[in-house]
Design a protein that fits this description.
204 residues; 6 helices
Protein backbone atom coordinates (compact mmCIF):
# COMPACT_ATOMS: atom_id res chain seq x y z
CA UNK A 1 0.00 0.00 0.00
CA UNK A 2 1.10 3.59 -0.63
CA UNK A 3 2.21 5.75 2.33
CA UNK A 4 -0.49 7.85 3.96
CA UNK A 5 0.25 11.40 5.06
CA UNK A 6 -1.88 11.93 8.16
CA UNK A 7 -0.54 15.41 8.94
CA UNK A 8 -2.76 18.47 8.64
CA UNK A 9 -1.00 19.38 5.39
CA UNK A 10 -1.53 15.86 4.06
CA UNK A 11 -5.27 16.10 4.66
CA UNK A 12 -5.27 19.57 3.13
CA UNK A 13 -3.54 18.35 -0.03
CA UNK A 14 -6.09 15.57 -0.50
CA UNK A 15 -8.94 18.03 0.09
CA UNK A 16 -7.54 20.19 -2.69
CA UNK A 17 -7.52 17.28 -5.14
CA UNK A 18 -11.14 16.54 -4.31
CA UNK A 19 -12.15 20.17 -4.71
CA UNK A 20 -10.52 20.23 -8.13
CA UNK A 21 -12.48 17.16 -9.22
CA UNK A 22 -15.59 17.14 -11.41
CA UNK A 23 -17.52 14.46 -9.53
CA UNK A 24 -20.09 15.80 -7.07
CA UNK A 25 -19.17 12.97 -4.71
CA UNK A 26 -15.75 14.64 -4.39
CA UNK A 27 -17.34 17.35 -2.24
CA UNK A 28 -18.21 14.87 0.51
CA UNK A 29 -14.68 13.47 0.54
CA UNK A 30 -13.28 17.01 0.53
CA UNK A 31 -15.41 17.79 3.59
CA UNK A 32 -13.99 14.74 5.38
CA UNK A 33 -10.38 15.67 4.60
CA UNK A 34 -10.96 19.28 5.67
CA UNK A 35 -12.46 18.15 8.96
CA UNK A 36 -9.45 15.90 9.53
CA UNK A 37 -7.12 18.75 8.55
CA UNK A 38 -8.55 21.13 11.14
CA UNK A 39 -8.56 18.43 13.81
CA UNK A 40 -4.94 17.53 13.06
CA UNK A 41 -3.70 21.12 13.00
CA UNK A 42 -5.43 22.12 16.20
CA UNK A 43 -4.23 18.93 17.87
CA UNK A 44 -0.66 19.82 16.85
CA UNK A 45 -1.09 23.07 18.76
CA UNK A 46 -2.58 21.30 21.78
CA UNK A 47 0.24 18.77 21.93
CA UNK A 48 2.90 21.49 21.55
CA UNK A 49 1.40 23.40 24.50
CA UNK A 50 0.29 20.42 26.58
CA UNK A 51 2.57 21.27 29.50
CA UNK A 52 0.58 24.48 30.06
CA UNK A 53 -2.88 22.87 29.80
CA UNK A 54 -4.78 21.40 32.73
CA UNK A 55 -6.32 18.73 30.49
CA UNK A 56 -6.01 17.60 26.88
CA UNK A 57 -9.32 17.04 25.09
CA UNK A 58 -9.56 14.41 22.35
CA UNK A 59 -8.64 15.65 18.87
CA UNK A 60 -12.12 15.14 17.44
CA UNK A 61 -13.60 17.44 20.10
CA UNK A 62 -12.46 20.56 18.31
CA UNK A 63 -14.65 22.88 20.36
CA UNK A 64 -13.11 21.63 23.62
CA UNK A 65 -9.59 21.82 22.20
CA UNK A 66 -10.23 25.35 20.97
CA UNK A 67 -11.45 26.40 24.42
CA UNK A 68 -8.33 24.93 26.04
CA UNK A 69 -6.02 26.78 23.64
CA UNK A 70 -7.85 30.07 24.12
CA UNK A 71 -7.02 29.98 27.80
CA UNK A 72 -3.40 30.41 26.69
CA UNK A 73 -3.77 32.63 23.62
CA UNK A 74 -7.15 34.27 23.13
CA UNK A 75 -6.56 35.92 19.75
CA UNK A 76 -7.42 35.08 16.16
CA UNK A 77 -4.69 37.22 14.61
CA UNK A 78 -1.58 35.72 13.12
CA UNK A 79 1.50 36.15 15.31
CA UNK A 80 4.53 37.37 13.35
CA UNK A 81 7.92 36.87 15.01
CA UNK A 82 11.16 38.22 13.57
CA UNK A 83 14.20 36.60 15.23
CA UNK A 84 17.62 38.22 14.93
CA UNK A 85 20.67 36.25 16.11
CA UNK A 86 23.00 39.07 15.03
CA UNK A 87 25.31 36.80 13.03
CA UNK A 88 22.53 35.58 10.68
CA UNK A 89 19.95 37.39 8.56
CA UNK A 90 16.74 37.93 10.57
CA UNK A 91 14.22 35.09 10.22
CA UNK A 92 10.44 35.61 10.17
CA UNK A 93 8.20 32.90 11.58
CA UNK A 94 4.41 32.81 11.92
CA UNK A 95 1.94 31.32 14.35
CA UNK A 96 -1.30 30.91 12.41
CA UNK A 97 -4.03 29.81 14.83
CA UNK A 98 -7.11 27.79 14.03
CA UNK A 99 -9.46 30.76 14.19
CA UNK A 100 -12.89 30.67 15.77
CA UNK A 101 -14.39 31.07 12.29
CA UNK A 102 -12.45 28.06 11.00
CA UNK A 103 -13.48 26.00 14.02
CA UNK A 104 -17.14 26.80 13.35
CA UNK A 105 -16.71 25.90 9.67
CA UNK A 106 -15.11 22.59 10.62
CA UNK A 107 -18.02 21.82 12.93
CA UNK A 108 -20.45 22.66 10.12
CA UNK A 109 -18.63 20.21 7.83
CA UNK A 110 -20.42 17.51 9.80
CA UNK A 111 -23.53 18.31 7.75
CA UNK A 112 -21.76 16.78 4.73
CA UNK A 113 -20.52 13.71 6.58
CA UNK A 114 -23.98 12.19 6.97
CA UNK A 115 -26.73 11.21 4.58
CA UNK A 116 -28.78 14.21 3.45
CA UNK A 117 -32.35 14.53 4.73
CA UNK A 118 -33.62 15.23 1.21
CA UNK A 119 -32.30 14.17 -2.18
CA UNK A 120 -29.96 16.79 -3.67
CA UNK A 121 -29.18 15.32 -7.09
CA UNK A 122 -31.23 17.94 -8.97
CA UNK A 123 -30.60 20.90 -6.67
CA UNK A 124 -27.86 22.74 -8.55
CA UNK A 125 -27.94 25.76 -6.23
CA UNK A 126 -27.25 23.51 -3.22
CA UNK A 127 -24.21 21.91 -4.87
CA UNK A 128 -22.81 25.32 -5.81
CA UNK A 129 -23.32 26.67 -2.30
CA UNK A 130 -21.57 23.65 -0.78
CA UNK A 131 -18.65 24.00 -3.18
CA UNK A 132 -18.33 27.69 -2.26
CA UNK A 133 -18.42 26.86 1.47
CA UNK A 134 -15.79 24.14 1.09
CA UNK A 135 -13.49 26.40 -0.90
CA UNK A 136 -13.72 29.10 1.77
CA UNK A 137 -13.05 26.53 4.48
CA UNK A 138 -10.09 25.20 2.51
CA UNK A 139 -8.56 28.67 2.23
CA UNK A 140 -8.95 29.28 5.97
CA UNK A 141 -7.41 25.88 6.69
CA UNK A 142 -4.58 26.65 4.26
CA UNK A 143 -3.69 29.75 6.28
CA UNK A 144 -3.84 27.79 9.55
CA UNK A 145 -1.36 25.26 8.14
CA UNK A 146 1.14 27.85 6.82
CA UNK A 147 2.76 28.89 10.07
CA UNK A 148 6.03 27.34 11.23
CA UNK A 149 5.26 27.88 14.91
CA UNK A 150 3.14 25.39 16.83
CA UNK A 151 2.64 27.77 19.73
CA UNK A 152 2.80 31.50 20.38
CA UNK A 153 5.89 32.76 22.16
CA UNK A 154 5.52 32.77 25.92
CA UNK A 155 7.64 34.99 28.16
CA UNK A 156 8.42 33.28 31.45
CA UNK A 157 9.15 34.94 34.77
CA UNK A 158 12.89 34.51 34.35
CA UNK A 159 12.54 36.46 31.06
CA UNK A 160 13.31 33.40 28.96
CA UNK A 161 11.20 32.80 25.87
CA UNK A 162 9.60 29.46 25.07
CA UNK A 163 7.72 28.29 22.02
CA UNK A 164 7.42 25.32 19.70
CA UNK A 165 8.60 25.49 16.09
CA UNK A 166 7.74 22.94 13.43
CA UNK A 167 10.70 21.73 11.40
CA UNK A 168 10.04 21.28 7.68
CA UNK A 169 12.39 20.35 4.87
CA UNK A 170 12.86 23.76 3.25
CA UNK A 171 13.81 25.67 6.41
CA UNK A 172 17.28 27.05 7.13
CA UNK A 173 19.26 24.40 9.10
CA UNK A 174 21.78 26.95 10.46
CA UNK A 175 18.98 29.07 11.89
CA UNK A 176 17.48 26.10 13.70
CA UNK A 177 20.91 25.15 14.99
CA UNK A 178 21.03 28.57 16.61
CA UNK A 179 17.55 28.09 18.08
CA UNK A 180 18.72 24.93 19.82
CA UNK A 181 21.86 26.41 21.39
CA UNK A 182 21.65 26.88 25.14
CA UNK A 183 22.40 30.42 26.27
CA UNK A 184 22.12 31.91 22.78
CA UNK A 185 20.68 35.45 22.82
CA UNK A 186 18.53 37.02 20.14
CA UNK A 187 16.22 39.96 19.51
CA UNK A 188 12.56 39.06 19.03
CA UNK A 189 10.27 41.52 17.24
CA UNK A 190 6.67 40.40 17.78
CA UNK A 191 3.61 41.78 16.05
CA UNK A 192 0.05 40.73 15.24
CA UNK A 193 -1.29 40.79 11.69
CA UNK A 194 -4.68 40.03 10.17
CA UNK A 195 -3.33 38.18 7.15
CA UNK A 196 -0.13 36.63 5.87
CA UNK A 197 1.90 38.56 3.26
CA UNK A 198 0.52 38.62 -0.29
CA UNK A 199 3.12 36.13 -1.51
CA UNK A 200 1.67 33.56 0.91
CA UNK A 201 -1.78 33.06 -0.57
CA UNK A 202 -4.00 29.97 -0.88
CA UNK A 203 -3.31 27.86 -3.95
CA UNK A 204 -6.96 27.61 -5.04
Amino acid sequence: MLPFDETSRGHLARARKRLEGDDRADLFYAALELRFCVEARQNDYVQAQSRYLKSIPAAHKIGNQAAALRRLFDRDETLRVEIDFHDLPPKVLYYTPVTNELKKSAEKLGDLLHIQKVRRSGDEAWWLSQKSFLLQTYRSAWYACRGEMLSPLLLLRDKSVVGAIELVADQDPLFFERIGEVGRTAIFNVSYIDKLPADLSPDI
